[in-house]
Design a protein that fits this description.
It contains 11 helices and 11 strands. By secondary structure, it is of the alpha/beta class. Helix 6 runs parallel beside helix 11 (about 270-285).
């Protein structure tokens, strides 16, 4: 009896039965390992902040960037910088045990200095619609909220699947990013994936850069049937007045998307995708 008790206690105290480290692979392909769930998280993009609140880990946030305004509680989290600059000292003053960065938005020098200091870094960069759910799951594991993250991920995936549509025609869609110069988004951007998801053909997606500049002649040749842009108002549509030689302008198929929904690759992105789908359906009609 005593021998059995002794063996049981030995097993319980064995290092092999200690809590396993938390390990995920981020969107840059790096392995991120934590010995315990992160309790002090700095998030360097609004979409990351939204993810953490969606998986019920918002209370772990100790630092965010200016512009992190959703949900309402995020406005109360201390700011550690903005898109104009992210001082390393401001991040380190928050004593983080995890920093979640935006791969294409956080300066590389900041990431490298954090890593050199031994601060765990998770790089978020959803490029496909499905990546949003995977980032939710990863951050859930790293913060000890795996179950809540799974619920949020499944809700996102379910709503995304329900939004997919087939149109009777495949409209040629131009997504206007900038006006002067005129720019759009290439195939590697999640908004381009949203247009395809909704049954449209994103123009200039084959360009080799993420943000291609588009000339007047190329746009005339492409003949967009729908033009989309993210903005706070419809004012951008006025710039197309007098361009009736484009089918989208001639037929009044210019649609404004909510920038917070379509431009942030977080849980609310599915609402932005639904806006895209409704616009394309209005332009072409359902199948």
């Amino acid at each position: 009896m005593f021998l059995a008790y002794l063996l049981t206690m030995t097993a319980l105290l064995s290092p092999s039965t200690a809590l396993a480290a938390l390990e995920v692979t981020d969107d840059a392909g790096n392995t991120v390992t934590l010995e315990a769930p992160a309790e002090r998280v700095v998030a360097l993009a609004p979409h990351i902040v939204e993810m953490l609140y969606a998986l019920e880990a918002g209370e772990r946030l100790v630092g965010v960037l200016q512009g992190s305004d959703y949900p309402q509680a995020a406005k109360q989290v201390p700011r550690v910088g903005s898109y104009r600059g992210i001082p390393l000292e401001a991040i380190m003053s928050r004593d983080p045990d995890l920093v979640v960065t935006w791969r294409s938005g956080t300066p590389r020098s900041v990431v490298e200095r954090l890593e050199a200091l031994g601060v765990p870094v998770y790089e978020s960069e959803p490029r496909r619609l499905d990546d949003v759910a995977e980032d939710l799951r990863d951050l859930g594991r790293l913060t000890g909220h795996a179950q809540a993250a799974e619920r949020a991920a499944e809700a996102f995936e379910s709503r995304l699947a329900a939004s997919r549509q087939t149109l009777k025609e495949t409209p040629r869609v131009f997504y206007q990013l900038g006006h002067n110069p005129l720019t759009t988004l290439g195939d590697g951007h999640i908004i381009t994936q949203a247009i395809r998801h909704c049954g449209g053909k994103p123009l200039f997606a084959e360009r080799p850069v993420l943000v291609p500049e588009i000339g007047r002649e190329a746009l005339i040749e492409a003949r967009p049937e729908v033009i989309l842009s993210a903005a706070r108002s419809d004012d951008w549509q006025r710039t197309w007045q007098g361009h009736g030689w484009l089918p989208a302008v001639r037929d009044s198929h210019l649609y404004t998307l909510d920038p917070d929904l379509i431009s942030r690759p977080g849980p609310r992105l599915v609402e932005g995708v639904e806006q895209v789908c409704r616009a394309l359906e209005r332009a072409t009609g359902p199948s």
